[in-house]
Amino acid sequence: MIEVRELRKRYGRVVAVDGLTFTVRPGQVTGFLGPNGAGKSTTMRMMLGLDHPSGGEVLIDGAPYRARSAPLRHVGALLDAGAAHPGRRAFHHLLWLARSNQIPRSRVREVLSVVGLADVARRRVGTFSLGMAQRLGVAAALLGDPPVLLFDEPVNGLDPAGVRWIRELMRGLAAEGRTVFVSSHLMSEMALTADHLVVIDRGRLLADTGTREFVAAHSGGYVRIRTPEPERLRDVLAGAGVEVRSASDGTLRAYGVEAARVGELVSAHRLTVHEIGNQPAALEEAFMRLVGQAAGQPGRGGQE
Hints:
With 304 residues, the chain is of the alpha/beta class. The chain has helices at 40-47, 90-100, 105-114, 130-142, 160-175, 187-193, 211-218, 230-239, 259-268, 283-295; strands at residues 2-11, 14-24, 28-33, 55-60, 75-78, 148-152, 179-183, 196-201, 204-210, 222-226, 243-246, 252-255, 275-279.
C-alpha cells in the first residue's frame, strides 16, 4: 500500500501540499481528484522521490521509493507521456528501463503486446501520436509487473476505444490485488473506474472515502422535467416547497422530490409536460459542490 503521512511541500512562501495524510490500499482503484493547483502532481512526484518533501513522508510497502534497488519491480508510474527520448525506438526505450532494473528482455515484448504497440515497437518515439505515447508510458509502468501503480492523466490523448481499454486495464490490475492510484480530469471516467476517492484542494485533504459514499454525501439526485409551461410549473413546485433550477437545455431540475410527486402536482394543476424522470447524482456535481464549499463559493471549475 501507499502511506502518505503529514506530507508537506513548500516553494518559498507558496504551500503546495499542506499536511496530507491518507492511505492507498490494494485491491481497488483509488482516484485522486482536485482543482487546478490543488497539489496533485506535486504529491505524486513526492511519492516517487522526484520532489523532496518539506515535511512528512511517503512509504510504499513500508519503505520510501528511493530505498528500492530495483524500483520498477515495486512501483510502476506514468506521470509524463513525453518522458521518452523522441529519437529512441519504443522497444529500446523499454529495454533500457528493463536492464536498469534486472527485468528480462522477454518482458519488453510482453508489455508492448499488452498496450497494443507490438506492431510499432521499432518506430522512433518522436513519430508517435499522443495516444501512442500514452500507451508506451503505460507499458513502462507495467514493465516490472509491480504491485503498486501510479497513473497521472492516463487517458490523455486516447480515443474512445483507448479510454475504455485503460479503464478495463486499471480495474483488472486492481482485481489482481494491486494498488492502483490514478489522477484524472475526467469525472465521467473516475465515476466508472474508481472504487475509492482522495480529494484535495490547496494542498489539503477534503475527502478520503468510497466513490458511492462520496457522491451520496455531497450531491443529490434531481427530477428532470421538460415542459412548454416552465414558468407555471416552477410556481407550482415552488409553492409546494420544492427547489427548482433551470438547466441550460431548457428543462427544469427539481431537487429533494421524487418524480411521482412531481407527476401528482402536474396532474392536480393540469399542466402539460413532455418528460419527467429521476436523474441520479453525479460525481462531477459532488466534486464541484465539495470544492465550492471548501472555497466558500457555490462551485469552482477546472481540475488540475
